[in-house]
Design brief:
- The chain is α/β, with parallel strands linked by helices.
- It has seven helices and 13 strands.
- The longest helix is centred in the middle third of the chain and has 19 residues.
- The protein is elongated.
Length: about 290
């Protein structure tokens, strides 16, 4: 079944009322407005088609949020553009205001005037013109926003730790305490990283192996930690809780489940390589513990 066309013969008229957009500017407690002339930008005649244009001293404050909520109600607004600080700072704050006012938090566009214009400097006329262009772009963009439904998705609590050095071992052991399955990936043939090659560690000259061996033993024998050495991350896709990771495992040649570390395979191996445990200064057999 196909939907009727949006325009032309057979089109079904859109019965939704036209969007009412509000433009709200924030002085950020004096951090915005010295170069950007908010008085000019806050003139409603400058923004035809915008239902509400207003300015507040500090929109993110409790009083500012209450004021914005009242503006939404009084102006019957369903889409909002806020000209203020970076959206990293308070986009979530303003989405909460829309949610509390019964509006969709998806129909918000925050335009960064403080970091992208005010703090850059320059002449007020040029700064105000740049701010106006950013606000015009924000208004054009919010017109295309659509309501996003909040839904729950199943996620995996398993964790991939990349790097089997001191930090990776510590992270794996800490995460495994929370009943998670942890996969510890190390590109070298053994865990420990640089710390495992040291004789003493800063600042008191403590024994490095005495520090590392308990962590190594705990990780290798932990029931919820799977160790993959000689393994590199090839590709990562997805998002938090739903990552898909492709790993490149180098050929083993020796079965790690049966290896006892006796060294007999090294004695029989005819290939020599630089020894990473001697900073490449020495040689070692390709096979061996």
């Amino acid at each position: 079944m196909t939907e009727p066309p949006a325009s032309g013969p057979g089109a079904v008229p859109d019965e939704r009322p036209p969007a009412r957009v509000g433009l709200f500017l924030c002085r950020c407690a004096g951090n915005l407005g010295e170069r950007v002339r908010l008085g000019e930008l806050g003139d409603p005649e400058r923004w035809p088609g915008v239902a509400r244009v207003a300015t507040h001293d500090l929109l993110c404050s409790p009083a500012g949020r209450d004021w914005l909520r009242a503006e939404l109600e009084e102006g019957r607004l369903d889409r909002v553009v806020v000209g203020a600080c970076s959206p990293r700072e308070h986009a979530a704050t303003f989405r909460g205001v829309l949610r509390d006012a019964g509006r969709s938090p998806s129909l918000l566009q925050v335009v960064d005037l403080r970091e992208r214009v005010e703090w850059i400097g320059g002449e007020p006329e040029a700064a105000t013109l740049r701010a106006a262009r950013l606000l015009r772009a924000g208004l054009a963009r919010v017109a295309h926003h659509r309501h996003l439904e909040v839904r729950r998705e199943p996620v995996a609590a398993d964790v991939l730790v990349i790097g089997g050095g001191a930090a990776g071992l510590s992270a794996a052991l800490t995460l495994a305490r929370d009943d998670r399955r942890v996969i510890l990936v190390e590109r070298e043939a053994a865990l420990g990283g640089l710390a495992a090659r040291l004789d003493a560690v800063f600042p008191d000259g403590a024994c490095a192996s005495c520090f590392m061996e308990p962590a190594l033993d705990a990780a290798l024998h932990h029931p919820r930690i799977e160790v993959l050495t000689r393994t590199a991350v090839a590709r990562v896709r997805g998002a938090s809780g739903r990552f898909r990771v492709e790993l490149d495992l180098a050929p083993r040649h020796v079965d790690p489940a049966r290896c006892l570390g006796c060294g007999r395979c090294a004695a029989a191996c005819p290939v020599e390589l630089p020894d990473p445990w001697a900073a490449g200064l020495g040689r070692r057999r390709a096979a061996g513990p």
